[in-house]
Amino acid sequence: MLKIRLSRTGKKSQPSFRVIVQEHAKAVKGGKVVEIVGHYRPSTPNKDLVIKKDRIEHWISVGAQPTDTVASLLKSKEGFNNMDRYIGRRDVKAKKKKATEEAPAAAPAPAAEVKAEVPAEQQVTEEAQAQAPAKEEPVETPAVEEPKEEKTEESS
Question: What is the CATH number of domain 2-86?
Answer without folding.
Answer: 3.30.1320.10
